[in-house]
Design a protein that fits this description.
The complex is a heterodimer of chains A (289) and B (250).
Chain A: E1 2-3, E2 9-10, H1 33-45, E3 49-52, H2 63-66, E4 71-76, H3 78-89, E5 94-101, E6 122-127, E7 133-138, H4 144-154, E8 164-172, E9 189-194, H5 215-226, E10 231-238, H6 245-249, H7 267-282
Parallel strand pairs in A: 4-7, 4-8, 8-10
Antiparallel strand pairs in A: 1-2, 3-5, 5-6, 6-7, 9-10
Helix pairs in contact in A: 3-7, 4-5
Chain B: H1 19-28, E1 34-38, E2 42-48, E3 64-66, E4 71-77, H2 79-100, H3 106-119, E5 131-138, E6 144-149, E7 155-157, E8 160-163, H4 167-177, H5 186-198, E9 208-214, E10 220-221, H6 224-249
Antiparallel strand pairs in B: 1-2, 1-8, 2-9, 3-4, 4-5, 5-6, 6-7, 9-10
The chains are: A alpha/beta (289), B alpha+beta (250).
Family (chain B): Belongs to the peptidase T1A family.
Subcellular location (chain B): Cytoplasm; Nucleus
Keywords (chain B): Cytoplasm, Nucleus, Proteasome
């Protein structure tokens, strides 16, 4: 017990660890049913589900346990997604096999029960000619608390054999830490980060310390490092985060890599598609001239 | 660390940065590329045209603006900020002419714009202008001038420079290709500006706008046809140069 300046007598919190500690109030314990209900509803809202396209039902087991996979290529962010859409998705025949349904504060929709097709943000495609090759187009933001769920529902928690993962994403160049001035950086530029078990050469220089990777790509890469899956992340540092032709073209060196080998047929055709994609999105903002 | 020193323009960080000014320079990089070249008897301004929506009137989206009969400027960055700066500069040009009965020198109007920009980097409650400008023209002494200003309020004279997105690539091209030969004649200077822009402009000539000022002549805006014919000439010259190269190798 201690007296405060104003004459109140308060119980002093002791740092001594005694058995009575368990009786002390835990500020995080749900103290009433209403709070518990709100928390449960929020958890339900933020649940990540992987839906099968054919049946539109939620998958019971992880995606890559349902379908065997040898190559998994993933694009996170609108520029990486546009790159794969133009150069890889159009070439061969791919079939959509599933999508993830999730909601967080960054999502534009408020209705989580009836998501339209355009709201299915993470779409999974499988190559028809080789059903072990998967492509994931992720243009939504997966929040920190959802990333573990996403990994569980897509990759599962058992080690995978013969799987190689390639991730493409972009980040603003102001996040790139370097002793040089940011005016001298040749943005956009590509950097790579790979797991220990990835033996092939990267198409660009490796990401130097103290730079780190964030969000879903980081979660996937960490998962791969833990489970000893060969994986490589290609990160494009750019000064334009919206859909931009110059940024997307910075990913082009990856077309020659082993990961995308055989999946890209016609580069010029891909360039045409890309131009169309970018021009339809371009004429939006008048803020900058 | 930057988070504590970048909220107010009037606060220096411990290592001497004014983060709001540096962030304003990032806003400039969001604008499309503009290039300026100072020739012997000509000054050239070339810009990458911003793509216009179908229902939008093209005339209202201009990157090259005349400040007076003998001075014009191109900008990159926030459109609204540019409009304010251009209006103030135009008023100043006329006011100067009425007061001292002489047209402004290019350096005078550049200094005016730069001073205006600098004032906004030292005021509380205001933010810096998010534009860089390339100001070109001829003074009464007949000497061509090219100046560049940036959001911090500095201005420098240049022989050739670029601002906006991909400015670094264009500047490197200019550093390699700006020689006494390439600016010897007016047409060579114009071609240099177009070649510099073609390095970074996506769909070739139809996305380029060009303006020139010749000594004792008013500003001339090139039409799309004229630019296209220049681009065709440049491509021909490129092909011929490549043929010569391959012949030499053989």
């Amino acid at each position: 017990m201690a007296a405060t300046f104003f004459g109140e007598v308060v119980k002093v919190r002791s740092r001594a660890v005694t058995e009575d500690e368990e009786d002390e109030e835990d500020p995080w314990a749900p103290d009433n049913p209403e709070d518990r209900e709100v928390r449960r509803e929020l958890e339900r809202k933020r649940e990540v589900e992987v839906l099968q396209t054919q049946t539109n039902l939620s998958l019971e087991i992880p995606l890559l346990e349902q379908y065997p996979c040898s190559k998994f290529i993933m694009a996170v962010g609108n520029n990486a997604v546009a790159f794969l859409s133009s150069f890889v998705l159009n070439s061969e025949t791919w079939e959509e096999i599933g999508s993830t349904k999730l909601w967080n504060e960054w999502c534009r929709t408020t209705d989580t029960t009836n998501l339209s097709p355009t709201d299915a943000f993470c779409v999974f495609y499988r190559l028809k000619s080789d059903p072990t090759v998967f492509l994931c187009q992720c243009s939504c933001y997966v929040a920190e608390d959802q990333q573990y769920q996403w990994l569980e529902k897509v990759f599962g928690s058992s080690p995978k054999r013969n799987l190689q993962i390639t991730i493409l994403t972009s980040r603003h160049v102001t996040d790139y830490k370097t002793p040089e001035s940011s005016c001298n950086l040749p943005s956009p530029f590509l950097k790579a980060l790979k797991t220990q078990s990835f033996q092939d050469a990267a198409c660009c220089t490796l990401l130097e310390q103290p730079n780190i990777v964030h969000d879903l790509p980081a979660a996937v890469l960490s998962y791969c490092q833990v489970w000893k899956i060969p994986a490589i992340l290609y990160l494009c540092y750019t000064d334009i985060m919206k859909l931009d032709l110059v940024t997307i073209e910075a990913f082009k060196p990856i077309l020659g890599s082993k990961s995308l080998k055989g999946l890209v047929k016609n580069v010029s055709h891909g360039t045409e598609i890309l131009k169309k994609l970018v021009t339809t999105n371009e004429i939006q903002s008048n803020i900058y001239t | 660390m930057a988070a504590r020193y970048d909220r107010a323009i009037t606060v220096f960080s411990p290592d001497g940065h004014l983060f709001q000014v540096e962030y304003a320079q990032e806003a400039v990089k969001k604008g499309s590329t503009a290039v300026g070249i100072r020739g012997t008897d000509i000054v050239v301004l070339g810009v990458e045209k911003k793509s216009v929506a179908k229902l939008q009137d093209e005339r209202t989206v201009k990157k090259i603006c005349a400040l007076d009969d003998h001075v014009c400027m191109a900008f990159a960055g926030l459109t609204a900020d540019a409009r304010i700066v251009i209006n103030r500069a135009r008023v100043e040009c006329q006011s100067h002419k009425l007061t001292v009965e002489d047209p402004v020198t290019v350096e005078y109007i550049t200094r005016f714009i730069a001073t205006l920009k600098q004032r906004y980097t030292q005021s509380n409650g205001c933010r810096p202008f998010g534009i860089s400008a390339l100001i070109v023209g001829f003074d009464d002494d007949g000497i061509p001038r090219l100046y560049q200003t940036d959001p911090s309020g500095t201005y420098h004279a240049w022989k050739a420079n670029a601002i906006g997105r991909s400015a670094k690539t264009v500047r490197e091209f200019l550093e390699k290709n700006y020689t006494e030969d390439t600016i010897a004649t007016d047409s060579e200077a114009i071609k240099l500006a177009i070649r510099a822009l073609l390095e970074v402009v996506q769909s070739g000539g139809k996305n380029i706008e060009l303006a020139i000022i010749r000594r004792n002549q008013p500003l001339k805006m090139f039409s799309a046809k004229e630019i296209e014919s220049q681009v065709v000439d440049i491509e021909k010259e490129k092909e011929e140069a490549e043929k010569k190269k391959s012949k030499k190798l053989i």
